[in-house]
Design goal:
Elements: E1 11-12, H1 24-28, E2 35-38, H2 42-55, H3 70-95, H4 103-110, H5 116-126, H6 131-141, E3 147-152, E4 160-161, E5 164-165, H7 172-181, E6 188-192, H8 197-202, E7 220-225, H9 228-239, E8 245-251, H10 268-296, E9 309-313, H11 319-328, E10 333-335, H12 351-359, E11 365-368, E12 377-380, H13 384-394, H14 423-434, H15 440-451, H16 456-459, H17 462-467, H18 496-503, H19 518-537, H20 543-568, H21 578-593, H22 597-604
Parallel strand pairs: 1-10, 2-3, 3-6, 6-7, 7-8, 8-9, 9-10
Antiparallel strand pairs: 4-5, 11-12
Helix pairs in contact: 2-3, 3-7, 9-10, 14-15, 19-20, 19-21, 20-21
Length: 605
């Protein structure tokens, strides 16, 4: 019988870093919880596959880099292994006794009390149903969490063989799509980090992404979006190719973990409102384009639109916020990422980093420039990878040896792209800097920017190696971690049960009482971002930059007005903090509009 993948919970666990959720589905999918595996690092994937083969006494044959198409084959082999393990765990769970300590009891204990599956099961247990009939009911009603994967569209590095550039299908992103498409999974690929038309076109090579004669998609596409505009543009791009986007996953621009793709001042609440109001139009427009494209390809096409979900993530921290997002904006699920870094049952975080995360306050969590992708990156001060990086710089050998090369995208000094965090790049850049006639103060500012870049390929993978007791001799033990600002309000390691009970409002694991509302927190982050952006433009500003800042200001002010109206008219939600939220909105509005753009631009004249 084929596996069933759809939500039994109203939350999902997004991808975190490279290694933090690399095996999360093995730990939680049989319990009905959906999560996402990063497909960036096929070297790590191969090591984790070997680890789990040994753990489950499966035969293991290494897929070395001497094998043709090894990256895609590694990904396929690992995903198939995860599928087998999850399926086995699920079947064992269904035939286990419903008793304390069993996975079957855990499955139902974790479900929210309003779950219809949970209510029906408890009613059956109280009745005199036979074991055989109960087994049939479990087979027909229990569902797995989805084993989803994530591909960063920017990471589509060109690859080489014997110093010859390989065809585009061997690029990293293309190989990752092929690896997923050739797997046995019936799940989704999450596309993040912006539009890549060439990569999007490649999906057409695989039949699993097209609806079959029964209008079923074996492989689905999830787009991580920043606003409605990005949803409709990308949705149409896919639909014109005969491909359906099954889920649009909105992520806060700044109140999130990992890379932060800030909007031009558009805030989470107004964006969700716009998407809610335009969902039917989005469905109608993309369905029409889909049908037309499938007809042209002589493929089966659905008369009615296929299912489309809207989900959101970034900064949620309480059950009240969770429920409000679901109800106010008609969401299908809410992503909880950063808090799960403190759940060892779910994610791979080494002991030292766990301690740092537990002790982290707002000042320890910051938006850095360490990413080689040139995108702001949420980071944690004093992480061991940064300490290792700074030590190399002090010894006069800045930069990484770049063993993985997944972020090798820069051709400033070479014909073959290299990474800006690599020793090769930083050495060339520093030589260029030293050749300039520059005062020591200016020299240091530029030098610090050069050596600030960190090897995230290794740093975001190492923790998974440490937790699973794998050999880290080659790449060292330095760990990068990418929590969102929300981590400041979670300060203890907890069990999966406790975290989910917190999500569903059964308990409160948050010790601090001063956590701001999700919308207020994001607003504060955008005001800080705007202030920093305006000062970065103040030296050599242009008309385009001035227009960008003015638009940013208008968008934030519109967002503030939206929130004022929203909270003034709420009848049930956030009643205990409603007045405080409205007061904070007023104070933020005053602070924001005190930022004198005209004065800043006058300085540049």
């Amino acid at each position: 019988m084929g596996l069933k993948y759809f939500n039994s919970h109203t939350f999902h666990i997004p991808v975190m870093g490279i290694g933090f959720t690399i095996d999360t589905p093995i730990k939680v999918a049989h319990l009905g919880i959906s999560s996402v595996i990063s497909l960036v690092d096929d070297i790590l994937i191969e090591k984790i596959r070997e680890h789990y083969c040994k753990l489950h006494s499966f035969s293991y044959e290494a897929i070395t880099d001497k094998i043709d198409d090894y990256r895609a084959k590694r990904i396929t082999a690992y995903l198939n292994l995860v599928n087998v393990i999850v399926n086995d765990n699920f079947e064992k769970m269904k035939i286990s006794d419903y008793c304390e300590g069993s996975d079957l009891k855990k499955y139902f204990d974790l479900l929210p009390d309003y779950s219809s599956i949970k209510k029906d099961f408890l009613a059956l247990i109280d009745s005199e149903i036979s074991k055989e009939d109960l087994q049939i009911w479990l087979d027909n009603n229990l569902v797995l969490g989805s084993i989803d994967v994530n591909i960063m569209t920017k990471l589509d590095r060109v690859t080489y063989k014997n110093k010859e550039q390989r065809p585009v299908e061997y690029n990293d992103g293309h190989s990752a799509i092929r690896g997923f498409a050739n797997s046995e999974l019936n799940s989704s690929v999450v596309l993040s980090a912006g539009i890549n038309p060439r990569l999007y076109s490649y999906f057409q090579q695989f039949k699993d992404f097209f609806p079959d004669a029964n209008n079923v998609l074996k492989k689905k596409i999830i787009l991580k979006i920043s606003d409605y505009r990005s949803a409709i543009i990308q949705g149409k791009m896919f639909a014109k190719k005969g491909l359906w986007v099954s889920e649009y996953r909105l992520e806060s621009g700044l109140n999130c973990g990992g890379h932060a793709f800030a909007t031009d001042g558009f805030l989470l609440g107004p964006i969700l409102e716009e998407i809610k109001n335009n969902k039917e139009s989005l469905i109608e427009i993309t369905h029409a384009l889909l049908v037309q494209a499938l007809k042209e390809k002589n493929l089966p096409y659905p008369e009615a639109p296929l299912s489309m979900k809207i989900t959101a993530q970034g900064g949620v921290g309480t059950s009240e916020e969770h429920d409000f997002l679901l109800e106010q904006f008609n969401l299908d699920s809410v992503g909880w990422g950063t808090p799960f870094l403190l759940v060892p049952e779910v994610t791979n975080v080494d002991e030292h980093t766990l301690k740092l995360l537990c002790e982290a306050t707002e000042k320890d969590l910051y938006l850095s420039n360490i990413s080689p992708l040139g995108v702001p990156f949420n980071s944690l001060r004093n992480n061991t990878k940064d300490i290792e990086k700074d030590a190399l710089t002090e010894r006069g050998r800045p930069g990484s040896s770049c063993p993985e090369k997944y972020c090798s995208l820069n051709k400033e000094f070479t014909d073959e792209a290299i990474c800006t965090a690599s020793r090769q790049y930083q050495s060339s850049k520093i030589k260029e800097l030293n050749a300039l006639d520059m005062d020591s103060f200016s020299h240091k500012i530029i030098f610090d920017k050069i050596v600030e870049k960190a090897c995230l390929c290794v740093g975001l993978s190492t923790s998974a190696m440490l937790v699973n007791n794998l050999n880290t001799k080659k790449n060292g033990q330095g760990v990068s971690v990418c929590p969102g600002p929300n981590m400041a309000y979670f300060s203890e390691v907890v069990s999966l049960k406790k975290m989910i009970d917190h999500i569903y409002g059964k308990i409160n694991i948050m010790i601090r009482k001063d956590r701001p509302n999700i919308f207020i927190k994001e607003l504060g982050l955008y005001i800080d971002y705007f202030r920093n952006l305006s000062h970065s433009f103040s030296v050599h500003s242009t008309d385009i930059q001035k227009k960008q800042l003015m638009n940013f200001r208008d968008n934030v002010n519109e967002g503030i007005n939206y929130y004022k109206d929203l909270f003034e008219n709420l009848k049930t939600n956030f009643q205990d903090m409603r007045e405080n939220i409205l007061m904070e909105l007023e104070l933020f509005e005053i602070e924001f509009n005190k930022i004198d753009l005209e004065h800043i631009f006058c300085k540049a004249v």
